Amino acid sequence: MTDTPGTAKERAEKISAKQLISIGFADVTNARRWLGFRELDGVDLSALLAGLAHAASPDVALQLIVRLIENHPEVARRINGDPRESETMFRLLGASEALGEFLLRAPENLDLLDIPPVDEPRADRAEVFRAALLESVGADPQADTPVASLTGQDAHKALRVAYRRGLARVAVRDVGAVDPVAYMPAVGRQLADLAGAALEAGLAVARAHAAERWEPALVEQVRLAVIGMGKCGARELNYISDVDVVYVGETRASDTGHTPDESTSTEIATEMAHTLAQAMMAAGPEPALWEVDANLRPEGKDGPLVRTLDSHVRYYKRWAKSWEFQALLKARCVAGDQDLGRRYEAAIAPFIWSSAEREGFVESVQAMRRRVTENIPEADRDRQIKLGPGGLRDVEFTVQLLQLVHGRSDETVRTRATTESLAALSAGGYIGRADAEEFGLNYRWLRLLEHRIQLFRMRRTHLMPRDERELAVVARSVDGAAERTHPTAQKLVSDWNAAKRSVRSMHERIFYRPMLAALANAPADTTLTTDAARDRLAALGYQDTKAAMRHIEALSRGVSRRAEILRTLLPVLLDWLAEGVDPDAGLLNLRRVCEALGNTPWFLRLLRDSNAAAERLCHILSSSRYVSDLLETSPEATAWLGDDSQLATRSLDELVSQMRAQVARHHDPGEAIRAVRQIRRREQLRIALADTSGVASVETTVTGLSDVDQATVMAALYLARTEYAAEHDGAVPAEVLVIAMGRQGGREIGFGSDADVMYAYAPAPDADPGEARSAAETVLNRMVKLLKQPCTPPVVAERVLEIDNDLRPEGRSGTMVRSVASYAEYYERWGQTWEFQALTRARYMAGSEDVAQAFFRVVDRFRYPAEFTDRQLVDIRRMKARVESERMPRGADPTRQVKLGRGGLSDVEWLVQLLQLQHAHEVPELRTTSTLPALNAAVAADLVGPEDAAVLEHAWKLATDIRNGNVLRSGRASDSVPSRRVDLEAVARWIGYEPGSAAQLEEDYLRITRQSRSVFERLFYGR
User: Fold this and answer.
1) Looking at the predicted structure, is the pLDDT value of residue 566 above 60?
2) CA distances from 92 to 240, 901, 969 (A)
3) Which of 136, 432, 621, 980 is the most exposed place for a label (fewest CB within 10 A)?
């Protein structure tokens, strides 16, 4: 449109909303109001609107222009002049409200708006920034140790204004670039150089400040090198970011005057470091720049702020952890004494490039990966450009890991900046060229996105905006200067999601695929050697890399469909296996499962199409010997991992029905019991898979295992009774009952538990008592034999169900089976308190329900007595003390024993059972054989306080989880908290702890059981 006469207000009213929207205004009404301000009366409206079309945010650019003209009318001449010359102003003010505010505060810098736009801008050299910043505080850039003539607030303001002038220069070139993605690395380098220049100027101010307290000659002899870490050290800094530093101090003797002693030298150097930081961070008329963070120094916040070079070296030799060497990967002297800085870099280099050989390197790498996403608020997870899945940190982690692995022997990859390192790794044959280009492009685009979001308000953020208008501004700002049509907010989000998907697969694509290509002789644009491939496996935690290479080769070689699919899938599968506690075992187990299933189509589809199932499988195979052994014999069960409903525990009725059906299908008792025991093994595997997949609670697990064993005993008893009847013309002179005791009675057994039982019988009508007892013994012995005898063919990987009848009256000396009347007589005449306590767990397991009713009528009056005497209370307390003394394994640490140890299962269960003996007669809700329901009933009856009950419940669940976790991990039962760190780590993960939390589990267990023991002693012993 051509300009029209009249005031700005009159002209603004004639502009259509459509035209304003096409320019990019988000708020048309507000835009028309600002276009009508009198400051624009003399401005060419057509030129103004044409210029605003270049702005990422025309709304913000317009408001800043009006405010600038108000105070500096000459700004209007830029708009009315050559459009090419005013383009810089529109682009800068539309991209950065913060820099517009800076120009309002410091109008002497308005000449920056005259920088002509350049399609391919050059970058300012570090020396230019250094000179400008030093001169701003009155220091000589040519001096060996520049000293400022300004100090205090005056120096801070001058330094910060000069810094922001440099920042605006960088931003002008950035927003005017035709290809800002390609220009992004140059922006990062300039921002790092500018930060280094600010630190140099701050150090000059610090020297001047120190000279006010100490003799200038002494200060002159104290040399300080400022080592940039992270993005500053790598010369890939953001527009706004903390600047991580490490300080190195040194005293250089002067030819004249005395030399400061070590204490004075350290004091001076530390004071200078503090003053330098204040120049960047302290409050003042000109806002602070950014935080100077020295927490990456040796010993972190607890260590001295400044150390000598020798002190740094001693620390890294003796005490540094692996992650500290990884942090040093980007260390570079950015300010201060360059000679000292170069010597520091040379001294730490051997530590960095040998760190992959250090003990704990793998754990450090895994911890570093976890730090990528930990502590991200859930609400921000899908907005994180830096830390979220597919974010910048994913790229940086993978590149740094490859550098640490291969940089030991190849100096060409010892680079700092991520983009340079990608190029070096590709040139060295460690990453495919196409992959390096793709990931480099994605990284630069994500960094550009981060830059543009930060530049707008100069705030330290890594979050994608939620607001549609803000997204539209970002979308316009990431476009090149030559673009005339701008993407929508929706297109920006779509492009971002595509970049994240690509980056998310980066680790497996560039870390594993070259390794597989080397093993499988597959075509690839990498030249990875076998030794390099083994280095990568070792860096991920594989101990026997030769064996791992054999397994990978066996899985991926060949032309079969399985080999083809596995070559595609193995990179991510290997990564998941590496997340487990024993990647070597996991890879071997994966090979076994794959070989067992062969080319089964559903299995290959499961691995290919169900990420959740494949990831679960890898984590289980690399952490659980128990499940891996079962899967080797029942590999088809891996299908359940893709469907949580298949992992659901089967009910007792369903199990009984399935087993009865198998018994009916097989006429031979041996074949029938084998089928029953196969079902038991299958259901134990189902429960173990549910437990290790995190879809089953501890209560669901123990109840499910108890029901599986109960159904198995019911089937075996049915078979034994049927067999006896067939051999005796259909007559069985006794009805038999199997009574569950102990943890089976409470439906609380774990993996690999025995079944504690007692037996009862009742003679059939008109049956001879002796014959009835003999028949009962025959049937029960046959039941036990069916459960334990070897099957033909064997039930592979079966854990035979052991039947323990030692809790019967008189123990092993007593008769195997008694009539109900005999039980009544025994308990009446000879029963001891501990036996009545054991009866609190008695529950029907299998056999005659009529006999069960009669039996429980007898025992209820002993386990729920109308009166529990003081004598009985003393008896049970003595028995508990005796159990702790005599049954604790010799040499065992009581604090780590989950069953009999301090505050463990025994303490909680004995306390609950005491309460049942004392109060169940009056409180029917206590008449349950399960620990936690009885504990809850005790709370409801005001017998135990809710806080105490919560402590006891927590201890009981944790002890049960650890007990089950021990079996899942090693395949062997153990009642101790694992002492081997790898086993403890596996158990911690099964319980639900985050990876790397073995020590936390140990600490939690000791603390919780200590609290539990305190509650137990107070309530059980009355202490």
Assistant:
1) yes
2) 16, 70, 60
3) 980
Write down the H helix ranges in 693-790: 698-727, 742-745, 769-788
- Residue 791 to residue 677: CA distance in whole angstroms: 9
**Largest interatomic CA distance in the chain:** 125
- In the predicted model, what is the mean pLDDT of residues 790-819? 92
The per-residue pLDDT for 302 is 93
Whole-number Å distance between alpha carbons of 458 and 456: 6
Structure confidence at residue 508 as a pLDDT band (50, 70, 90): low
Q: Per-residue pLDDT averaged across 257-281, rounded? A: 92
Q: What is the mean pLDDT of residues 313-318?
A: 94
Q: ∠ at Cα 93 (88, 97), nearest 5°?
A: 155
Give the contacts of 673 (CB within 8 A, at least 6 positions apart). 715, 716, 719, 786, 787, 789, 791
How far lies 598's CA from each of 560, 567, 607, 803, in Å?
A: 10, 15, 13, 38
d(CA 746, CA 94): 71
Bigger pLDDT: 507 vs 447:
447
**3-state SS record for 272-307:** HHHHHHHHHHCCCCCCCCCCEECCCCCCHHHCCCEE
Dist CA 232 CA 230 (whole Å): 6
The pLDDT assigned to 155 comes to: 97
Rounded Cα–Cα distance for residues 681 and 197 (Å): 70
Strands 843-847 and 734-740, by their bridges, are: antiparallel
How far is 704 from 682, CA to CA, in rounded Å?
12
Task: Report phi then psi at 760, rounded to 5.
Answer: -135, 160
The reported pLDDT for the residue numbered 1 is 45
Residues 403 and 780: their CA atoms lie apart, in Å, by: 67
Comparing CA positions, the residue from 759, 748, 904, 928 lying closest to residue 840 is: 928
On the question of pLDDT at 429 being above 90, the answer is: no
48 alpha carbon, distance to own chain's centre: 52
**What are the tens digits of pLDDT across the range 328-379?**
999 999 999 999 999 999 999 999 998 887 777 766 766 766 666 666 777 7
**Can you tell me the distance from the alpha carbon of 442 to that of 419, in angstroms, rounded to the nearest whole number?**
11
Average pLDDT, the chain: 91
Q: Kindly report the number of other CB atoms within 10 A of residue 679's CB atom.
A: 20
Q: What is the pLDDT of residue 104?
A: 96
- Angle subtended by helix axes 998-1020 and 981-991, to nearest 10: 70
Q: How many CB atoms lie within 10 A of CB 1005?
A: 26
pLDDT of 141-159, one tens digit each? Answer: 999 999 999 999 999 999 9
Residue 230 region by backbone torsions, left for phi larger than 0, else alpha for psi between -120 and 50, else beta: left
Distance, CA of 493 to CA of 385 (rounded, Å): 11
Task: Write a three-state SS string for 65-128.
Answer: HHHHHHHCCHHHHHHHCCHHHHHHHHHHHHHCHHHHHHHHHCHHHHHHHHCCCCCCCCCCCHHH
Tens digits of residue pLDDT in 889-917: 888 899 999 999 999 999 999 999 999 99
Pairing mode of beta strands 306-308, 332-336: unpaired
Q: Among residues 901, 898, 909, which one has the least CA distance to residue 933?
A: 909
Beta-carbon neighbour count of residue 464 at 10 Å? Answer: 20
pLDDT tens, residue by residue, 705-745: 999 999 999 999 999 999 999 999 888 999 999 999 999 99
> How do strand 734-740 and strand 332-336 relate by DSSP bridges?
unpaired
Q: Coil, strand or helix: which one is 844? A: strand
Two structure tokens written together for 805: 């009848």
Q: Which residues, including other chains, have CB under 8 Å from residue 2's CB and lie 6 or more apart?
A: 46
The model carries a pTM of 0.72
Is residue 146 a contact partner of residue 198, using CB atoms and an 8 Å limit?
A: no
